[in-house]
C-alpha cells in the first residue's frame, strides 16, 4: 500500500497483488513520471507509451490468459491505478481503457469479436475509448441523440460526442447510439467502431480542461459513418442501456479507488513539504494548526481507503451492487477534494504553482465529482436503495 499506511493491507490483497504493485510502481516512476510536463503541453501521452504499458503486462489484468491477460481480479486493476496516481501521472488514460472499456468489450462481445479485438486491447496495440456523453446529454444516457440506422450489413451512424477520454489515440471506439430512435432506453445499443481511416469519423478539437491536461479529451463527430452490423455488442439491438447500467458500478468503483490513491498522494506531498519548509525558525509541520490539519486529512484518507477496499472486496466476491459503488464514489470523490484542498494550503503560494505536483492534484481532483456520474446522481442511486 501507500507509504501513508504502511501497516495496512486490504483483505483482497495477495502476494500476487503486492508483486504487481512493485512492478507497476517502478514502471510509472521510470516511464511516466519524467514526461508529465511534456505530455501536458501536447495534451496526450506518446502513442508508444500504450505499447510499453502492454509489454509490461499492465493492461487487461483481469482478462483471460488466452487473450494475453493475467486472469486476475478487479483488485489488479486497482493496484495499477493506485501506482499510477502515486507516481503523479494524470495523463495516461489507463482508467478508461483497461478497467472500464476493455470489460465492456470482453463482457458483451461474442467469441469472434473477442478473438479479433482482445489481444490488441491487452497488448496496447488497440487503444479504447467509449463515446457516451453528448453536448446536450450527460448522465441521462437514454436521451442520447446519436443514431445508428441499419442499412444492409452496416449501421450508418450520425451524431456527436464530447468529453471523450483517449479521443486522440483511440483505435476502437464503443459508440452509444440509438438503433431505434422511437424508443427510449430500449432503443440504445453499443457498437464498436474501428476508427482507423474510417470515413465519416472525425476527431474534433482537444478540449482545454481545468486539470488533467495530459489526457487526450476530445470532441468526436460521426457523419454517415458506416460500421458493420457484426460490430454490435450483444446478441441483439436495444441492450445498450442495460449494458451501461450493469458496467457503471465498476466504473464508479475504479474512480473511487483512484480518489483514495490521490488523497494519500496529496498528504504525502504535504507532509514532505511541511518538514522541509521553515517559518519563524522551525519546520511549518511543527505548528499545531498544520500538524492537526494533516492528522485530520490522514484520518479522512483512511476512511476513504477502507470504504473503497470493502467495496472492492464485495465486487471481487461477485456482488456488483450499484448503491454500494455509488456510496464509495460519492464519499471518495467529495472527501478527496477537501483533502487535496487542505494539503495545497500547506504549501502557501507555492501550492498555486504548477511546478509542484499538488497543483496538478488540485485541478485534477475536481472532475471526480462529475465523471462516471455526478455526486448528485450518486445520491439519487443511493436514496433509491433506502
Describe the structure.
- With 386 residues, this protein is an alpha+beta fold.
- It folds into 3 domains: 112 residues, Butyryl-Coa Dehydrogenase, subunit A, domain 1, CATH 1.10.540.10; 109 residues, Butyryl-CoA Dehydrogenase, subunit A, domain 2 (Beta Barrel), CATH 2.40.110.10; 144 residues, Butyryl-CoA Dehydrogenase, subunit A, domain 3, CATH 1.20.140.
- Helix content is 48%, strand content 14%.
- The chain is built from 11 helices and 9 strands.
- The longest helix has 37 residues.
- It starts with 14 loop residues before the first helix and ends with a helix.
- The model has no long low-confidence stretch (mean pLDDT 95).
Q: Kindly estimate the percentage of residues that lie in beta strands according to DSSP.
A: 5-15%
Gross morphology is: globular
What is the CATH architecture descriptor of the largest domain? Up-down Bundle
The CATH topology of the largest domain corresponds to Butyryl-CoA Dehydrogenase, subunit A, domain 3
Order of helices and strands: HHHHHHEEEEEEEHEEHHHH
CATH superfamily of the largest domain: Butyryl-CoA Dehydrogenase, subunit A, domain 3
> How does the helix and strand content classify structurally?
alpha+beta
Amino acid at each position: 500500500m501507500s507509504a501513508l499506511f504502511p501497516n495496512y493491507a486490504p483483505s483482497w490483497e495477495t502476494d500476487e497483488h503486492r508483486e504487481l504493485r512493485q512492478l507497476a510502481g517502478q514502471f510509472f516512476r521510470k516511464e511516466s513520471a519524467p514526461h508529465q510536463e511534456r505530455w501536458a503541453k501536447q495534451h496526450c501521452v506518446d502513442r508508444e507509451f500504450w505499447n510499453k504499458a502492454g509489454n509490461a503486462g499492465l493492461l487487461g489484468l483481469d482478462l483471460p490468459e488466452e487473450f494475453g491477460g493475467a486472469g486476475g481480479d478487479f483488485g489488479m486493476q486497482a493496484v495499477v491505478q493506485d501506482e499510477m496516481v502515486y507516481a503523479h501521472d494524470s495523463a495516461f488514460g489507463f482508467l478508461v481503457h483497461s478497467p472500464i472499456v476493455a470489460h465492456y468489450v470482453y463482457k458483451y462481445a461474442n467469441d469472434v469479436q473477442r478473438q479479433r479485438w482482445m489481444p490488441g486491447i491487452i497488448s496496447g496495440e488497440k487503444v479504447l475509448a467509449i463515446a457516451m456523453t453528448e453536448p446536450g446529454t450527460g448522465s441521462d444516457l437514454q436521451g442520447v441523440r446519436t443514431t445508428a440506422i441499419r442499412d444492409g450489413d452496416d449501421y450508418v451512424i450520425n451524431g456527436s460526442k464530447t468529453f471523450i477520454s483517449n479521443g486522440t489515440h483511440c483505435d476502437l471506439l464503443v459508440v452509444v447510439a440509438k438503433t431505434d430512435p422511437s424508443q427510449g432506453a430500449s432503443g440504445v445499443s453499443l457498437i464498436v467502431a474501428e476508427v482507423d481511416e474510417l470515413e465519416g469519423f472525425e476527431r474534433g478539437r482537444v478540449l482545454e480542461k481545468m486539470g488533467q491536461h495530459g489526457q487526450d479529451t476530445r470532441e468526436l463527430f460521426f457523419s454517415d459513418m458506416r460500421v458493420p452490423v457484426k460490430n454490435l455488442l450483444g446478441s441483439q439491438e436495444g441492450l445498450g442501456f442495460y449494458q451501461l447500467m450493469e458496467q457503471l458500478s465498476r466504473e464508479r468503483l475504479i474512480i473511487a479507488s483512484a480518489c483514495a490513491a490521490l488523497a494519500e498522494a496529496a498528504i504525502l506531498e504535504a507532509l514532505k513539504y511541511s518538514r522541509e519548509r521553515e517559518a519563524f525558525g522551525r519546520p511549518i509541520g511543527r505548528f499545531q494548526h498544520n500538524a492537526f490539519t494533516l492528522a485530520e486529512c490522514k484520518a479522512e484518507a483512511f476512511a476513504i481507503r477502507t470504504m473503497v477496499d470493502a467495496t472492492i472486496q464485495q465486487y471481487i466476491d461477485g456482488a456488483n451492487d450499484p448503491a454500494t459503488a455509488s456510496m464509495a464514489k460519492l464519499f471518495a470523490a467529495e472527501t478527496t477534494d477537501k483533502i487535496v484542498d487542505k494539503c495545497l494550503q500547506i504549501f502557501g503560494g507555492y501550492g498555486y504553482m504548477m511546478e509542484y505536483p499538488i497543483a496538478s492534484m488540485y485541478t485534477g481532483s475536481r472532475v471526480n465529482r462529475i465523471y462516471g456520474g455526478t455526486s448528485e446522481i450518486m445520491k439519487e442511486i443511493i436514496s433509491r436503495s433506502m
